[in-house]
Amino acid sequence: MQRLDPDKYENDPELEKIRKERNYNWMDIITVSREELPDYEEKLKSFYEEHLHLDEEVRYVLEGSGYFEVRDDKDRWIRILVEKGDLITLPAGSYHRFTLDEQNYIKAMRLFTGQPTWEAHFRPAENLEIRKQYLEFLVQSA
């Protein structure tokens, strides 16, 4: 996880450097709150269902806070608090989920390489090649 200055995200040279280095050429901003997100309750439920993606999940918190929960190499949950200024990258193929904290509000930039894919692969997804690659990465990193 990295820390950036979210108050200057529109013209932040550090964010631009990261985007260029990682080839994040697409972005949008999502606000997760009862007032801002259509189908709020259903979306929160889907965010919290354990899943993986074929691409990295990159979120830059501009306001508010929440929790990402990620499976470790022993299949235990690790809870990560993300707050204003945090840039988190979850590897492709890693099981994770997201929930809000007691503020019930987060505004985050979503970054992608190429066209965004919104498809979540719910557990079990062990047959996917990206999951096999991620598990191999964990073994090599140990």
Automatic annotation (TrEMBL):
Fe(2+) binds at residues 51, 53, 57, 96. Pathway: Amino-acid biosynthesis; L-methionine biosynthesis via salvage pathway; L-methionine from S-methyl-5-thio-alpha-D-ribose 1-phosphate: step 5/6. Belongs to the acireductone dioxygenase (ARD) family. It is a peripheral membrane protein. Ni(2+) binds at residues 51, 53, 57, 96. Keywords: Amino-acid biosynthesis, Cell membrane, Cytoplasm, Dioxygenase, Iron, Membrane, Metal-binding, Methionine biosynthesis, Nickel, Nucleus, Oxidoreductase. It is found in: Cell membrane; Cytoplasm; Nucleus. Monomer. Interacts with MMP14. CDD domains: cupin_ARD. One of its GO terms (molecular function) is iron ion binding. GO terms for cellular component: cytoplasm; nucleus; plasma membrane. Catalyzes 2 different reactions between oxygen and the acireductone 1,2-dihydroxy-3-keto-5-methylthiopentene (DHK-MTPene) depending upon the metal bound in the active site. Fe-containing acireductone dioxygenase (Fe-ARD) produces formate and 2-keto-4-methylthiobutyrate (KMTB), the alpha-ketoacid precursor of methionine in the methionine recycle pathway. Ni-containing acireductone dioxygenase (Ni-ARD) produces methylthiopropionate, carbon monoxide and formate, and does not lie on the methionine recycle pathway. Also down-regulates cell migration mediated by MMP14. The lineage of its organism: Eukaryota, Metazoa, Chordata, Craniata, Vertebrata. InterPro entries: ARD, ARD_euk, RmlC-like_jellyroll, RmlC_Cupin_sf. Its EC number is 1.13.11.53, 1.13.11.54. One of its GO terms (biological process) is L-methionine salvage from methylthioadenosine. It comes from Rousettus aegyptiacus. Its cofactor is Ni(2+); Fe(2+). PANTHER family: ACIREDUCTONE DIOXYGENASE. The keyword Disulfide bond does not apply. Binds either 1 Fe or Ni cation per monomer. Iron-binding promotes an acireductone dioxygenase reaction producing 2-keto-4-methylthiobutyrate, while nickel-binding promotes an acireductone dioxygenase reaction producing 3-(methylsulfanyl)propanoate. Gene3D superfamilies: Jelly Rolls (2.60.120.10). Coiled coil: none annotated. This is Acireductone dioxygenase. It catalyses: 1,2-dihydroxy-5-(methylsulfanyl)pent-1-en-3-one + O2 = 3-(methylsulfanyl)propanoate + CO + formate + 2 H(+); 1,2-dihydroxy-5-(methylsulfanyl)pent-1-en-3-one + O2 = 4-methylsulfanyl-2-oxobutanoate + formate + 2 H(+).
